């Protein structure tokens, strides 16, 4: 292998994976929810944000829908 390479003539190109990068977002989560995922992540040996992302990705792949039933407030 060469000790040095001449990269001055190298052509740059756009990263083909850039569209698949993660998007940073801010979320307000309950403390108990964060603690739950942190504990699970610690057991699994992964960062808790990655675990949350994996869980949400699974929801997307399984096409899970949230069912919310708000109380009507009528007595």
- Tell me the distance between the termini: 81 Å
Mean of residue pLDDT?
88
The largest sheet is: none
Helix and strand composition category: mainly alpha
Could you tell me the number of beta strands?
A: 0
- What is the overall shape? elongated
User: Roughly what fraction of the amino acids lie in strands?
Assistant: under 5%
H and E order:
HH
Secondary structure tally, helices: 2
Poorly predicted runs of 5 or more residues = none
Radius of gyration: 22 Å
The portion of residues assigned to helices is 25-40%
Describe the overall structure.
The longest helix is centred in the middle third of the chain and has 14 residues, at 31-44. Helix 1 (31-44) crosses helix 2. The chain contains two helices and no strands. It is mainly alpha-helical. The mean pLDDT is 88. It has a domain at 29-61. Helix content is 37%, strand content 0%. The radius of gyration is 22 Å and the shape is elongated.
Summarize the structure.
Helix content is 37%, strand content 0%. It is mainly alpha-helical and 75 residues long. It has a domain at 29-61.
Q: What keyword list fits this structure?
A:
mainly alpha, elongated, 0% strand
Helix-strand blueprint:
Layout: H1 31-44, H2 48-61
Helix pairs in contact: 1-2
